[in-house]
Amino acid sequence: MIELSKAEFEVLDAVWLGYPATASEVIVRLSDDKEWHEKTIKTLLSRLVKKGALSFEKQGRQYNYTPCIAREEYTLKESQSFIERFFNGRIAPLVSGFAKSEQLSQHDIDELKKVIDDWEKQQK
Amino acid sequence: MIELSKAEFEVLDAVWLGYPATASEVIVRLSDDKEWHEKTIKTLLSRLVKKGALSFEKQGRQYNYTPCIAREEYTLKESQSFIERFFNGRIAPLVSGFAKSEQLSQHDIDELKKVIDDWEKQQK
DNA sequence: AATTTAAGATTACACGCGTAATCAAATAAT
DNA sequence: ATTATTTGATTACGCGTGTAATCTTAAATT
What we know:
homodimer; mainly alpha; Arc Repressor Mutant, subunit A; Penicillinase repressor fold; 2 domains; 6 helices; about 10% strand; DNA-binding
């Protein structure tokens, strides 16, 4: 599995918003949420390339970056390893923890019900 | 929030198994799963103390370590920040990702249903 | 054509982490 | 009482990370 740091993931996340994307585009996308220096973001883009999370094509003197992995694929892997580490691979205790601490809204519950419903339909 | 590294968490996890616990006890508990050198584990115990995750009382020349936080409290915080980072704070997409990739068993589903059930009962 | 600009490449640097080895001191053994 | 042992404290060290600054070179401007 490709291992990304927190900051690297956030940059990749900005690329997932729409790609191919140039460095400048990524910088603009991040500028609202982050106080990162332009140079910092470029460093992170390079590291993402080196790690195989991004590829690029030259276009003039700019690069057009494209993710090498789908967001869902990456977050699924991360979720698996998270749940393995903290909850022995079982997902219910995580949800249960949220429930116990009043982190769940009716909306969350409805969404969860739908997930369960879909799962059961798809099962039969 | 106390920030623990992966290795630090695993050591703390061994303390949570039963406390107060001496370094030797922790070392024994970890010996099955981990190939860690005794010195490594002691380093991690010290770092956990420095970070405020463990406290200790001297007993002879040994220390008796006790966690300063409950496992559930810690994992809840971690879960929150995980779900924030990867799923914008919503829990259903995580579960949905598992469902889509066939990571869920009937048992998981049953557990999830129970969590939902309990939540709804407790709501009325 | 010469100069300025701007993009990516390279270099920097302190701090945390994994992974111990060494040091100091208190206790256990003789 | 000495010596050996064992515990925690201190030190070590390379690698990843956050956070850029500087360098190089190609493209844009004049």
